[in-house]
Amino acid sequence: METQQLDSYMPESARDLEGWKLEPSAPSTCKRIRDSRVEIATQKTQNSHFFFSSRIEILFLMAAERYRPVSIEDLPSQLVIEILSSGKLSAIDLLHLELTSRTFGGSHGLYPHKFGSLVDYAAYQLCVSHSVYGKMERNAQRGLFDRCGGKWKRVLRFLQSVEQSSDMVETSAGNMQITTGRYHTLLISNSSLYSCGSSLCGVLGNGPETKQCVTFSRINFPSPAQVVQVSASHNHAAFVMQSGEVFTCGDNSSFCCGHKDTNRPIFRPRLVEALKGLPCKQVATGLNFTVFLTRKGHVYTCGANTHGQLGHGDTIDSPAPKMIELPEGIGYIVQIAAGPSYVLAVADNGVVYSFGSGSHFCLGHGEQHDEFQPRAIQTFKRKGIHVVRVSAGDEHAVALDSSGYVYTWGKGYCGCPELLRIDAIVQSKDNHWCCQNFHRCVLESGRPLFSVTTVQYMVVVGWGLAALDFQTGVSDKILSPRILDSLRAHHVSQISTGLYHTVVCH
C-alpha cells in the first residue's frame, strides 16, 4: 500500500484534527486493526471473509479456502467503507489512516461531494449509527456538528469520549478504569481488578486479614471473570462483570451491598444473587446505598433510604436490590450517578432525573426538598438541553450536554453554583469546540471538579486541601477553570478523586 510521511502528505480533510497531539507513528492503531478481525459478507461473495491486518492488507478467503493477499487499493470502495465503519476503530485510528494513505485520504466518488475522503464518510456513518447521536433532536445534532467545526471526525471523537467517561479508557498501559473511595483506590487493568489503600470493612476485597495495601493488589473472584466497570464509596464497592453479573464487598450494615442474609462486612467480592438473570451495565455507590443499571435501562437500588434516595416513593430501607417504578414515558435510562444520598439518572432522550436528598440544591430543582421518586430537572428540558452524562459530588453536581458544554449546580462556595454553564472550559487554548472526556466529581471534603479537554489537559475548579495540585494554601479556592500545569505534558485519559487523594490515568 502506498504510504507517505505525514509532513509531505496531509489532505485538507484531515487537517481539522490538528491539536490532538498525534504521534507520527500509530502503533496502537495498528494493534487495534490487528486485533479486530472484520468479517464482511456481500451478496456476491457470501462465502468470503475479509481480514484487516496490521499491514493494512486484506486476506481474501475463497470458497476453496485458499488465501491470497490483496492490496487495499484493489478493493472496491464499498468494502473499504464497510471496514472503516465496522465500529472497531476510534476517531484517532481513522485520522491515522487518513494521514498515512491516499486510499483513505482521497476522494473516490463513492459518496456525496460534501465528504472529503473515505474516512470522512466512514466517520459520518459511525456518528449517525451511534446510540447517543441517534437519540438527539435534530437541532441538538446540528449544534454538535457546528461546535465541531463541521467535521465528522470531531463529532465521532466526542461521542466516543462520552462512552468512555464512565467506563474503561485506553491508556499507554492498556485499557483501564480508576475509581477512588474514602481512603482507597480501585483499578481495572485489562479486565483484572486491583486495590490499594485502607481496607475499612473489607472494601479492598482481599479478606479480613488485609488492613492496608500500600501497592496495588489483585482482587480474586470466586470464578474467573472479566471486570468491566467498578464504583467505590466510602466503605463499600461494586463491580460489573462482562457477563452482566454484579459483585460487591465492604460494609453491609445498611445492606448497601445487596446481601439481605447478613449485615456483617463482606471481605471478598460476593455475587449479588437478587440480580441473577438481570445483566447490568453500570453500578453507582452512594454513602450507604447502591444503584444498579441493567442493560435494558432499568434501575435497581438497595441500602439505606433516609432521604428517599432509593427512589421507591418512601423512606423504607431495602436489603436487596429493588426496581424503581419509573413514570410513564420516562424512557430508557443510559447512565446513573450517585452522591452521598441522592441519585442522578440520564434518559436516552437527554432528560436528567434526580431523587433523594435535596440538600445544597444538588437535585437541580431550585429547592432543598427531598424527592422520593425520580423527577425531571426542568431547566434542561425548558432550554432544550440534551444531557449525555452526569456526575454527582458531595455538595454539587455536574452535567455534560450533547454540544460539549459543562453545567454545574449545588452549593456554590467552591465555584460550583446552581445550573451554571462553564464556558471557560471549552474556550481554553486549542479547545474551542467541546469538552472531551467527562468524569466524576469528588465526594466529601475536597470538592474539586475535574474535566479532560480536547487536547487532554486537565482542567480543575474547586476547593484546595492540596488535592488540586496548585501552589496554594490548603483552604484556597479555585473559582474558575484552570489547567493543571503539572500534567500539561501528559495525555490525561481519566480522573478520580477520593477524600484526600486524586488519581490520574494517562
Keywords:
2 domains, five-stranded antiparallel sheet, alpha+beta, Methylamine Dehydrogenase, Chain H, oxidoreductase activity, acting on paired donors, with incorporation or reduction of molecular oxygen, four-stranded antiparallel sheet, Cyt_P450_CS, Regulator of chromosome condensation family protein, Reg_chr_condens, 506 residues, repeat, disordered N terminus
Topology:
Layout: H1 27-35, E1 49-52, E2 57-61, E3 67-71, H2 77-84, H3 91-100, H4 102-105, H5 118-128, H6 131-134, H7 138-147, H8 152-164, E4 169-171, E5 174-180, E6 184-189, E7 192-198, E8 212-218, E9 227-232, E10 236-241, E11 246-250, E12 266-271, E13 280-285, E14 289-294, E15 299-303, E16 318-323, E17 333-338, E18 342-347, E19 352-356, E20 371-376, H9 378-382, E21 387-392, E22 396-401, E23 406-410, E24 420-422, H10 423-426, E25 437-438, E26 449-452, E27 458-463, E28 477-483, E29 494-497, E30 502-505
Antiparallel strand pairs: 1-2, 2-3, 4-5, 5-6, 6-7, 7-8, 9-10, 10-11, 11-12, 13-14, 14-15, 15-16, 17-18, 18-19, 19-20, 21-22, 22-23, 23-24, 25-26, 26-27, 27-28, 29-30
